[in-house]
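Form 7-S
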Amino acid sequence: MRIVCLPGDGIGPEVTAAAVRVLEALPLEVELEERSFGGAAIHATGTPLPPETLSACLEADAVLLGAVGLPEFDGAPVRPEQGLIGLRRELDVYANLRPARGGDVDLVIVRELVGGLYYGARGRREDGSAFDTCDYHPNQIERLVRRGFELARTRGGRLTSVDKANVLETSRLWREIATATAPQYPDVRLEHMLVDNAAMQLVLAPARFDVIATENTFGDILSDVAAGVTGGLGLAASASLGDAGPGIFEPVHGSAPDIAGRGIANPAAMLRSVSLLLEHAADRPELARALDAAVDRALETAPTPDLGGSATTAGFTDAVLDALSVDAAARGA
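Output:
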């Protein structure tokens, strides 16, 4: 299995190194290739997504991404985040899976990733005003909603389609297509919910949700809310998937340049992203479950400073590898 690693910026290289250690320790044949991306690539080549990086990603089985973003590029005409948006578009990874798990909460947000406001027409007018266009084609909505239905039927059988249909025309189209698709999935119960109510329910009663399907901007915001009620962004993983080609697996957190280079970054979100890679790209769900369990154990035995502990990035990774070894020994592997 060929995996392209894009360490990126800030703590990205540190958590990527932890992921590489774990991947190399697993019973999985992998070929790892590192490429420049984000702010590091701007420094080296002038662009956040160099052509050779994109070519390598297109030829890979999976892309493992650390983090992008540096304060020095804030407001600059060329920014690290542009590379991420471009990579998502080129790989057409339209379905962003954002699990949120903790206590009695176990939900997944399926966020549309290559349409909507972030990809619509935008600009400034001569009178000083600005505009961003939210634009969706029915096919973009249907494939995302269908992904939500298919995921829900493997879980609790409940899908919440989130929109703002009382105001937005794109949301009315979204609701129409979700409703029209539902009869093809009689084993999944569909409900519609306005995004403002969904945000409140995620805070007050997150356990009521199973799978949430929503558009790009709403999903961006709601997934951070869900992460906040289940432990914070430092623990949140993601998988961005298309219908063909490699997926992108990355932690939700940012590049945290204020702690970069100090060896204290929490790699849990990156390792949970590796778990999603094992499940969705490598078709090794048993390894994914083992890694998830090992990360959960390390969070208890070797927490990093952001969680009130003192473990280093390397120390946390050691704890994960130790837990994996104990599980393997218990199974006689």
